[in-house]
Amino acid sequence: MRRSARAALLIGWLLALAGLGWMISQRLHVSTDLRSFMPAPTTPDQRLLMEQVGEGPGSRLLLLAIGRSCASGNCSLHCSDSGIPAVACARGTGPSMAGAGQSDAKLAALSQGLAAALKKDPRYSQVLNGSFDLAALDANLLPYRYLLSPTLDAQPLDEAYLADQLQQRLDDLSSPAASLLKGLLPRDPTLEVLKLAEAWAPAKSPELRDGVWFSPQGEALLLVQTAAAGFDPGAQQQSIDGIRQTFAALPDSAGAALELSGPGYFSMVAAAQTRHQADWIGRISTVGFIALLLLAYRSFSSLLLSALPIASAALAGIAALTLAFPEVHGITLAFGFTLLGVAQEYPIRVLSHRRAGEDALASVRALWPLLLTAIASACIAYLAFYASGVNGLKQLAVFTIVGLLVAGFSTRYLLPHLLPRRVRDVADMRWLIEARRFVDRLPRPRWIPVLVAAAVVAMLALARGPFWQDNLAALTPLPPDLLQHDARLREALGAPDVRYLLVLEAPTAQGVLALSEQLQPRVDALLAQHAADALELPSRYLPTVALQRERQQKLPDRATLQHALDEASQGLPFRADLFQPFVDDVEAARQLPPLTPQRYAQTPLGQRLAAMLVERDGHWLGLGTVSGVHDVAALQALGENTRGAVRLLDMKAASESLVVDYRTRILQALLVAAISLVLTIAFALRSLRRAWHVLAPMTLATFLVLAVERVAGIEISLFHLVALILAGGLGLHYALFFERDTGDPAEQRRTLHATLVCVLSALLVFGMLAWATIPVLRAIGLTVSLGVAFHFCLSILMAPHARQD
Amino acid sequence: MGLLLPLWASASASEPTPAASSAPALIAALGQPAPAHTAFAEARFLQVLDRPLVVSGELSWLGGDRLQRRVDRPQQETSTIADGEVTQQRPGKSPRRFSLKRAPQLQVLLDSFVALLGGDAARLQQAFEIRQHGDAAGAWTLTLVPRDARVAKTVASIRIDGYAKVSRCMHMQEADGDLAVDLLGPLAARMPAEPTREALQALCQGEP
Prior knowledge:
The structure holds 2 protein chains of 2 kinds. Chain A is built from 32 helices and 13 strands. By secondary structure, chain A is of the alpha+beta class. Helix content of chain A is 61%, strand content 8%. Chain B is α+β, with helices and mostly antiparallel strands. The radius of gyration of chain B is 16 Å and the shape is globular. Chain B has an 11-stranded antiparallel β-sheet with strand order 6-5-4-3-2-1-11-10-9-8-7, with helices on both faces. In chain B, 25% of the residues lie in helices and 40% in strands. Mean pLDDT of chain B is 80; it is low at 1-20. Chain B has helices at 4-13, 23-30, 104-118, 121-127, 149-152, 197-205; strands spanning 36-45, 53-63, 66-73, 77-82, 85-89, 96-99, 128-134, 139-146, 155-163, 166-174, 179-184. Chain B has 6 helices and 11 strands. The longest helix of chain B is centred in the middle third of the chain and has 15 residues, at 104-118. At the A-B interface, helix 4, helix 7, helix 8 and strand 4 of A face strand 4, strand 6, helix 3 and helix 4 of B.
């Protein structure tokens, strides 16, 4: 091809890539929500998990602590009595009261400022900081306290009760608590508002200072519920960024430090850590990879050009995804790029197999049948993943099949035209001749497969511990100090557990509330037995319409109440007409339409209820949050004889059962893939015996990796499986090329060269990953590295024509 | 409020000249070793009530920041301030606890009372602006205004009347107009059955 034509081809190719890139930038929506990668749920619990995991009240909760920031050390967390100045570490008692008071006041002001700003932001559905203002039950709703509070269920609002209450208030007024109650007295002499506030406060409410929650360590505490799903790291990142920006924008926030915790924060941290480590390992191994290829081919232009098929594969794969699916999952892309590692082999094979003076096109033509067999068989195998029906796996299949085809065909039809005409034939290199001789001299006893198979069986039998790792969270573990911090804040705030949820189901919202009311006495009994520290049911925030009506009917009319009040305050020094606002409120409460979830939803407290009472497909679900579970069986017993209307959802168990389903789907797909691979290879090579020589080492090596990892105590996860598939794809190439009988020693040497370059580059890239500290990266790195090594050794030792050499 | 105005008028008419130099000496002279106990009778004039609430009992400084207020009449009640927490106990009821931070009045009471009984002028000056009227040998009045703006929102001022080395009365003027007057020591026995602000004023400022 002429120089100008080559330039035109190169430019055209680059333009096409740029076009694909542009299209992707326009269309690609990456979803980070784990749920969209998971298989369709089958059991009711799984369904609930998928619907609720991200949206459940517990998982959307962020725990915030505003502490004093210290330039040196971490004194905001650990206030010891020695060495740290009192201002930085005041505890709020003792003679340094004035200093600590101001400091507390500042933190409290920050807490109030942050809460006020976040309450206006639609990204957060609830913000609590302990300041119970009557505004939480806004002024119009204040008379509803007589319909919401259970006090009057057992106790009519009559003269005897009022007399007792008024006497108690008189005692209160002469006690040190007077100032706490003085303001409430005229409107609420029975302190119904305080009773509600007590009932609605978190089960174990933190200490109040300056009107907001404080931890024992002197940090102001807040609870923020995000609108975004808890296990969507991308959306959580935005919510968390929003909180940080709001905080930074507050005046006086410079001297204070904001710390976060909670599931959403964790999912974000885990994603960021994994990405960070993958990035720096990726950078190092890229440099190594480039150095290796330069060393192998001594041509800079060859190196750059050989990157084109891979780049085309990746871009075309993503482009195909954006056309076929509305959203692409982040994990699909991560898995997909891993699997696409196979495609790097295609240009390497071409570069290694070039002969001196021969046109690149001619070398490719000679290689193409074998390369095509490899590509076709890999694509057919991945079709099995498409057939699995799981959205994430379908995406993975589309991405890899399109990518491999594009990489293969561009290597065959485009790359050769661009490669430099003159190259050095690697076959003449002295070390390669020596290496080939060494390989050819290796003994290849027929009993090797039997021995390896026996070893595999023995190792699998000997391995201890569970075979599968189904806890996906274990693959991206969090630093222990983060977990400790979370435990401390959760304890201080009495925030609910993320793992358990008591689910109530009924056809209507009122039905759920009724169920919740029926359940309340049994729940109270369980709490008294310490089965859990707290269990919060939706009816705690809103009684049924029926119960509200019942309470309404018990309220006395204005004349009766006024009379009772007059009688009750006989002889007491209360100012005449002091309690007029009280009488007005009770009268108003008698006339009110009962509070419905819809009306309630417009109030700050209603949002709390909205998180606990949700509609799903014409059904209503009540989600009871549980904290500090001590006796799971006792809680599960709540669901007995309810025919599923009440059940304890164990999110961990449900998510693990999802992963098990997922794994089953992958294994089924793998089985189908293996069968189609055998058929394809047998058909392509037109010989079962030759197919055996290709497939046997590959299969044995795959099981050998599994066995070695199991003996090393590694539990196998989804990520190990995907890595095994990649290693299998690479192994297929080694076996195919070693099996090829060309009868030409120089060509055999080139094959060895190409395979060595491929093996070394794979070992370099994935060997680096094997050193990662994050288990998910280590799983992929270790599995692929072991796989590549075993595939290489076994395909050499089991190559068929060694006897003829 | 009608009752209140003459009181304020009289207070401002006899506005004392600040005598910061002699206040520390006076306060130091009031100091007693812990534990110190004194009888008290308190009248609270509250806007929500037609007539004042009267209770009596014993105030004890247990040393440090611990203070106990025991009410014997009309009903038994013991309130203890310790470690930043207030515990309120009545016979036959479970104790009620709340943080001192939620009750600025109590914080002020603690600060002023402990500092006075401890003779700790520095602490008193840290928490309050102090004005003295009269001299340490005869009848005197200390007026304390909280320095913390947050506290001042609920407690406008505290006035202590005394004679020589003995504090006789403590007036806590709340920002909303409510007033608590505590007669201390032997004076406690002289609390009228139906006290008025004027009668108490006369008792506190009269000859011992």
